[in-house]
Design goal:
Layout: E1 2-3, H1 9-39, H2 41-61, E2 68-71, E3 75-80, E4 83-88, E5 92-98, E6 105-110, H3 112-115, E7 122-125, H4 140-156
Antiparallel strand pairs: 1-2, 2-3, 3-4, 5-6, 6-7
Helix pairs in contact: 1-2
């Protein structure tokens, strides 16, 4: 089995939010201690707005990522929240890749039969990515998955 998800996923899902909200918490406490409620209105509002903004962005782009994804030849092994799922290529309907996004994302849209399971209708993960100065470069993992899902679909007769 070959790991195709990024080793940084744990940091993106847990480390960065801890740093972000920790910094905002320290800023908020510092503003309260320094100026209190009498003059620190803007110093209290800004960390709260940044916290809300960070929460919305992390919920949309980070917290939905699968913890680990492995290529097992004829299927993918998806590990998320302490559970492991076997995902055959025949259960994947579409593969899409987001470019110029950090962290990079690959979205696997599942067939209706597979979507009724515990994975839901989509599996999203951050792939291993080679260094490139081109932010619009295609991801090799996504390209490979697209070809293999298409081959599985043609064998299935769809």
């Amino acid at each position: 089995m070959k790991k195709i998800s990024s080793a940084s996923t744990g940091f993106y899902k847990k480390g960065f939010p801890a740093l972000w909200f920790g910094f905002l918490g320290v800023s908020l406490v510092g503003a309260l201690v320094q100026s209190g409620l009498r003059t620190g209105g803007v110093f209290l509002v800004v960390p709260c707005v940044m916290g809300l903004f960070g929460y919305v962005l992390m919920r949309r782009f980070v917290w939905d990522l699968a913890d680990e994804v492995y290529d097992a030849g004829d299927c993918l092994i998806v590990k998320n929240r302490g559970r492991e799922y076997r995902l055959p290529f025949t259960d994947i309907m579409n593969v899409s890749s987001s470019i110029a996004v950090n962290p990079p994302r690959i979205t696997l849209r599942l067939t209706p039969q597979a979507a009724s399971g515990s994975l839901g209708s989509e599996v999203v993960f951050s792939p291993v990515k080679k260094f490139s100065l081109n932010p619009f470069a295609k991801n090799e993992v996504a390209e490979d998955l697209m070809v293999r899902v298409d081959q599985a679909r043609s064998k299935r007769g769809v």
